[in-house]
Amino acid sequence: MNPIIKTPEPVLEAIWTLWSRMGRQPRMRMVTGSMQPLIQIGDQLLIEPLPKNIHRGDVVIYRHREQLIAHRLVSIEGERLILKGDNVYHFDPPLPREKIIGRVLGIEGGADYTAMRWRLLNSLIAQFSNSISRAYRLYQTLKHCV
């Protein structure tokens, strides 16, 4: 799926849901290096559309302007989600939970992390996300003090 094509969210959700019901796995191609080294440019992301449960450490999909973004969930603050690319220094603006349109289940590409290996890697990175989450809260506190 080309993230540059502008598709209304309800249409995208309907397509992904239909594919899932037909037994096909929705996919998205990674076009940036924001999630390197785990997810490389050109990797195909295996997507779970409209996930019911998301957890700190999950890589989730949301729309920002005309692009679909795949970033890691580093903190959940009520209904606000704090996301960040693994290879970038800044956090994304807080996002309402209902803006999440998918969750990455695995990767097909150079790394080929699918199923069990993906869950294992993601759980290890989730542990690291605890530190990132604490750093984000400290950053927010200091920002308001200055």
What would you say this structure looks like, in words?
The chain contains two helices and seven strands. The longest helix is centred in the C-terminal third of the chain and has 31 residues. It is of the alpha+beta class and 146 residues long. The radius of gyration is 15 Å and the shape is globular. The protein starts with 8 loop residues before the first helix and ends with a helix.
Order of helices and strands: HEEEEEEEH
- The top-level CATH class is Mainly Beta
Low-confidence stretches: 1-5
Straight-line N-to-C gap: 43 Å
**CATH fold node name:** Umud Fragment, subunit A
Q: What is the CATH homologous superfamily assignment? A: Umud Fragment, subunit A
Q: How many helices in DSSP terms?
A: 2
CATH architecture: Ribbon
List descriptors.
single chain, 146 residues, Umud Fragment, subunit A, 2 helices, disordered N terminus
SSE order and pairing:
Blueprint: H1 9-21, E1 27-29, E2 44-49, E3 59-64, E4 67-77, E5 80-84, E6 95-96, E7 100-108, H2 115-145
Summarize the structure.
The protein is α+β, with helices and mostly antiparallel strands and 146 residues long. 30% of the residues lie in helices and 29% in strands.
